[in-house]
From TrEMBL:
PROSITE patterns to which the protein is assigned, alphabetical: GMC_OXRED_1, GMC_OXRED_2
Species of origin: Crucibulum laeve
GO molecular function terms attached to this record: flavin adenine dinucleotide binding; pyranose dehydrogenase (acceptor) activity
Keywords recorded for this protein, A-Z: FAD, Flavoprotein, Secreted, Signal
UniProt protein name: pyranose dehydrogenase (acceptor)
Binding site for FAD: 241, 508-509
Catalytic residue positions: 509, 553
GO cellular component, one term: extracellular region
């Protein structure tokens, strides 16, 4: 059952899961399915139900204007981005960031996961051994208009899990052009029928977490909605976990199985106990915050903050990785982009009505219908170490949008545009999450460290040039008329790098702040089975455990992590 009143929570459960986000809901579902365990799931935010911007795919960006559904984080000034601070929101509702994300679905490449297996010395994390888990997490469903998708995806690479994935319903003017350009330009931009095959490289039709009725498929809709009635699951919402308390036992290895929570900074403090394990699934920002508040982290840094260090794990909150994102705008010679719809209130209402009645039209899809994961030529890597996991991972991404994506620059009042977002997929820059205060309700200090590694800047410059090259294909003649904006004005490599520093934003993929490392490694935060080192009864299951960020959007990989983790837990306790 779903509770908002902490007084109704029992003093003890087998498992307490902190955070009902992408990973937390997978854990809640899998750990309650046998009926053997009782589980409490605690979520800081409210329910996702009935929240239209979280349901209608095209409206996804507008959730960020709903204060109660987000952690409205901002980074500290980024020295390599001309000291700009960046908006850095996370989802704060059932489904977490999977209820507010931009819906693009990618698993990662086989090289990405085989690298995880090497880094952790744990073969269970290899692509081959994860197969059952990625197939268990998602299924391909027909788009709402039920068109023939034979040339858009390959069903044989998909599974039978709760997350619904589909190709776009509403064809935009650029979809066919992107595919034609890919065919005309050859190997560099080759067509890839399905990015979920393990080989992500090439230009593909985007797959999104959208069901066949054109509604968002999130961890809340996929993993939680169907299990609200399970008697062995309690869900407490609008309640924030403030820290974990160590047990009083004399054991040398402290156990952190008592969970402390409250509904606001001045409200009553509550506790519950996990007989078997506490599972932290609060995401890559909040999981390290909770660990540090509980005395788990860098001894010196905790002492400085006045927190008694209980477990010395210097890597807590360190190694933050994210994909820097840049928006490349182009003017186009047509009225048929979403700019026209968004400027006309009647057209906007019509689009919403069409979505509501038929599940079709502009609002049925995410902002992007085509994506590309592209590799840089060997000549670029002369004298440099290639940071990608292998030949099936891209170096940068291109995300095609049939209109002006006003993420960083407000949309102009006139004109029609296409936007191509470019992202660096194997960033070498590292950042951190540290405590600003011992008050759990004060936001932590977030520093993604974007562009602090020079190679990330040069990779982004190559990505921008590649987009411009892509538009030299004959299909764009007379259609793309000019570049636009600060980046559009830049021509030389130095100008492009400088424009990038002025406009890079986040793609919202923070990861690796409680990274997994080999069982006996002194570095890292969790073991390959995701248990927090130097503790007992405490596991982490979310993007913070990624040993390195995959060259992919992160929700697919975190579903795989959680499905795998649920079996680790069952293997231990069943
Ligand atoms: C705007 C945006 C767009 C994105 N677009 C994409 C995309 O298109 N494709 C893609 O693959 N990925 C995308 N992502 C990233 C993806 O959604 C995340 O990587 C993924 O959801 C992370 O899963 P998680 O389980 O680690 O954390 P989350 O899904 O963020 O879940 C963490 C949960 O824990 C809760 N929580 C945190 N602290 C506490 C506490 N102290 N007490 C109780 N509860 C707590 C949070 O409220 C939240 O519900 C996007 C993310 C955002 C924010």
């Amino acid at each position: 059952l779903v509770y908002t009143n902490p007084n109704l929570i029992k003093p003890e459960y087998d498992f307490v899961i902190v955070g009902a986000g992408a990973a937390g809901n997978v854990m809640a579902n899998r750990l309650t399915e046998s009926g053997k365990f009782n589980v409490l799931l605690i979520e800081a935010g409210p329910s996702n139900q009935g929240l239209l911007p979280s349901i209608v795919p095209f409206l996804a960006p507008s959730i960020q204007a709903i204060p109660y559904a987000i952690w409205n984080y901002t980074t500290i000034p980024q020295p390599a981005l001309d000291n700009r601070t960046l908006a850095y929101v996370r989802g704060k509702l059932l489904g977490g960031s999977s209820s507010i994300n931009f819906l693009t679905f990618t698993r990662g490449s086989d090289d990405d996961f085989d690298r995880w297996a090497r880094l952790t010395e744990e073969p269970e994390w290899s692509w081959k051994n994860l197969r059952q888990y990625y197939l268990k997490s998602e299924k391909l469903v027909p788009p709402a208009d039920a068109h023939d998708t034979t040339h858009q995806c390959n069903p044989s690479f998909h599974g039978n899990g709760p997350i619904e994935v589909s190709v776009p319903t509403f064809a935009t003017d650029i979809d066919g052009r992107v595919i034609s350009a890919s065919k005309e330009l050859g190997e560099e931009f080759k067509f890839n029928l399905d990015v979920q095959s393990g080989d992500m490289v090439g230009i593909s039709v985007a797959q999104s977490t959208i069901g066949s009725t054109s509604k968002r498929s999130s961890s809340a809709t996929g993993y939680l909605n169907s299990i609200f009635q399970r008697k062995n699951l309690d869900i407490l919402i609008q309640t924030q976990v403030t820290k974990l308390l160590p047990s009083n036992s004399n054991s040398k290895i402290p156990s952190f199985q008592t969970v402390q929570f409250a509904q606001n900074s001045t409200g009553k403090i509550y506790h519950t106990h996990a007989k078997k394990e506490v599972i932290l699934s609060a995401g890559a920002i909040n999981t390290p915050q909770i660990l540090m508040l509980s005395g788990i982290g860098d001894r010196a840094a905790l002492t400085k903050k006045g927190i008694k260090p209980l477990v010395d794990l210097p890597d807590v909150g360190q190694h933050l990785q994210d994909h820097p994102l840049l928006l490349n705008y182009f003017r186009v010679n047509t009225k048929n982009t979403f700019d026209t719809i968004l400027r006309d209130p009647h057209a906007t209402v019509n689009a919403l009505n069409q979505w509501n009645t038929t599940g079709e039209g502009q609002f049925a899809d995410s902002l992007t219908n085509s994506i590309g994961f592209i590799r840089l030529d060997n000549s670029f890597w002369n004298g440099k170490v290639d940071p990608s996991a292998g030949p099936k991972s891209g170096h940068f991404e291109m995300i095609f949008i049939d209109g002006f994506a006003a993420l960083e620059t407000p949309a102009p009042n006139t004109g029609n545009f296409i936007t191509v977002n470019t992202a660096v997929l194997n960033p070498l820059s590292r950042g951190s999450v540290t405590l600003a205060s011992v008050d759990p309700f004060v936001f932590p200090v977030i520093d993604p460290g974007f562009f602090t590694a020079p190679l990330d800047v040069s990779t982004m410059v190559e990505a921008v040039k590649a987009v411009r090259k892509f538009f030299t294909a004959s299909i764009w003649n007379g259609y793309v008329t000019s570049r636009f904006g600060t980046m559009g004005d830049a021509s030389t490599d130095a100008e492009i790098a400088s424009a990038a520093r002025q406009s890079v934003v986040t793609i919202w993929h923070p990861a690796s702040t409680a990274m997994m490392s080999p069982e006996h490694a002194k570095w890292g935060v969790v073991t390959p089975k995701l248990l927090v080192k130097g503790t007992s009864g405490l596991r982490i299951v979310d993007t913070s455990i990624f040993p390195i960020i995959p060259a992919a959007h992160t929700v697919g990989p975190v579903y795989i992590v959680a499905e795998r983790a649920a079996d680790f837990v069952k293997e231990k306790w069943c």
